Hints:
Elements: E1 27-28, H1 31-36, E2 39-45, E3 51-60, E4 65-74, E5 83-84, E6 93-97, E7 103-108, E8 117-122, E9 129-130, E10 140-143, E11 149-156, H2 164-177, E12 191-192, E13 195-196, E14 201-208, E15 217-218, E16 238-240, E17 246-252, E18 264-270, E19 277-278, E20 287-292, E21 299-303, E22 315-319, E23 325-328, E24 336-341, E25 347-353, E26 358-364, E27 370-372, E28 378-385, E29 388-395, E30 398-404, E31 417-418, H3 422-428, E32 429-430, E33 434-440, E34 446-452, E35 463-469, H4 487-492, E36 496-501, H5 510-514, H6 523-538, E37 542-552, H7 554-565, E38 572-576, H8 582-588, H9 592-599, H10 607-611, E39 626-631, H11 639-651, E40 656-661, H12 671-689
Parallel strand pairs: 1-32, 35-36, 35-37, 37-38, 38-39, 39-40
Antiparallel strand pairs: 2-3, 3-4, 4-5, 6-7, 7-8, 8-9, 10-11, 11-14, 12-13, 14-15, 16-17, 17-18, 18-19, 20-21, 21-22, 22-23, 24-25, 25-26, 26-27, 28-29, 29-30, 30-31, 33-34, 34-36
Amino acid sequence: MFHSITSRPSILVFLGLFSLAVSAQKGPFTYEDLLMLDRMYGLDVDPSGQFAMFNVRATDMEQNKGVGSLWLKELKDPTKPEVRLAVSDKGAGDAHFSPDGNTIYFLSSRGANGVNNVWRTDMSGTKAEQVTHLPLDVIAYQVSPDGKGLVVALAVYPECAGNEIACTVKRQVTGQADKSSGMVYTELFVRHWDTWADGTRNHLFYIPLADPKTDPVALMDGLDGDVPSKPFGDAGDFTIAPDGRTVYFSVRLAGPREPWSTNFDIYSVPVTGGAPTVLTAQNKAWDASPRVSPDGKILAYKAMARPGFEADRFAIMLRDATGKVTPLAADWDRSVDEMKWSMDGKSLYVTAADVGKERLFRIDRKSGQVTPLSTDGHIDAYNETPQGFVFLKSALNSPSLLYAAKPKAKMIDDGAIALTNVDDVLEDRKFGQYAQFHFKGWNDEDVYGYVIKPANFVEGRKYPVAFLIHGGPQGSFGDSWSYRWNPETYAGAGYAVVMIDFHGSTGYGQAFTDAISTHWGDRPLEDLQKGWEYVLRTYPFLDGDRAAALGASYGGFMVNWIAGNWKAPWKCLVSHDGVFDSRSMGYTTEEMWFEEWENGADVFTDPDAYDRFNPALYAGDWSVPMLVIHSDLDFRIPVSQGIGVFTALRSRGVPSEFLHFPDENHWVLKPQNAMKWHRTVFNWLDHYIGH
Length: 691
């Protein structure tokens, strides 16, 4: 029951209804619809299982920003409409129930100093009370299971050990008085993702709720590392034991080798402070996501096995009170994403990519038996309640929506109760029908993909094709919803869509994922070529004479690569944030472990390894018209890579355009910029392969 804030109907409409007026006749789903959708995320359920709480992000296109709000849904009577909490009016996010279910905690910067602090309200959601009074923004937080305290993350200077908060504030004031903008660096990272390093680290502090104005207890005093990790860490990087006495967290110690290291370790520290104790020193690879069993006796966490590889399989480890570590479901060839203990402590519930889907699984704590609990689509969030599961799920033809599993259902999404009237959402727009296929790719192994019909498909007609290539490269274009590369927007514009999970994709076993490393340009290309041949043979509605290849990140690299190595099928190309000069990437990107693992060497001792699949070396043969997109704040693949692509195209006289964003990173996030992106891309496609 939400609407975009740009529309003002007299009554609330259901979640996901578009701000555009609903026409009497179904219309195709468009990118304008996509950008104006209300986005649902941040699920939490109270301990009794009677209420679900979640965030909704609406789009204010005029103000060029997203606007968040908190909503409450009564689960006991799903017919009752969800309620927007009044505390949302001044900004509220990252909301969680208290352990007793009577209080809602959330983050807001509504205070006098404009700093993000923890606030709370009762179940009516009408009045906000400030809990923490910190001079620094709260980046993430958790409420202790005993309800007696908070653990908050703040950005502080680690060299301020012994007085991190006050010292950091003082240094900030001093820095503001300095008229110089220069900063001296003595080690990497100098920049990461889209931010230049400022010397601060995300550190954890404990605050007793009995006296929240007391000085917070430093839990990482002087430690040179970030919790949550940068740039994408969150409150899942730490947890509090059920008795409220101990905090566990995952951190990578920095030092001079940080850009080359994936060695995160699990630490423990009492809420009273002191030196943290490392628990996983024996593993030099990535240890993450500490989760304590309900009885407090077992620490579960995820662990990779190979140092320096960020896409290794995340296996599950169980550590008992004696320190003994045992792998759980060691033979299960899937990499764990989210992980939670069952309420009875007998199992772990995990999500994992699985053959083009993101499914929920139960893993028995004693036997290690893995049982699937969902069928298709993408499980975005889930909570076990005394009455069963409540979850958010998306699919290729549906944004993330709220569901409740039927009691005793073997699969949570089998006949699940839609709590946000998904039928009404789908009635407003027409989506392209989609199907999964598979064929024999590189090494005669099965490779999977999806084909999507145009929204207004007519039997017997042929349609131009948008051939979408995913990034990562250890990723997937699967049965899920996206607010950036959404295949249904292409289907809505009259294009058929083909997406192939080439070797290197996730969800098909670790050996399949590993196959792309040091093979960026051959094995995946063979999969794409064989997949293209397969779909043209299998789906007669695909017009192979009117086709465009599009991709971002690794997908942008592949577009640049096929421009010189497989250009015959394509009437035009779109390369977003793609690698152009692989050797240059070895010098200019920020996460060095990635480049060195994927190329099998460092660029300084073996530069030829970076030239094996270097698109720049084939640019002399480019001839297919290409749209190039890149942004200044993309430090993963610097903007010079995109400028290089455009320069090569213009030098060769190839029809081309360059869309440049000075204020975006590896993604395009601002609403007006996203509108410009989509309008430019679809105009380019329409010109070369449209009707």
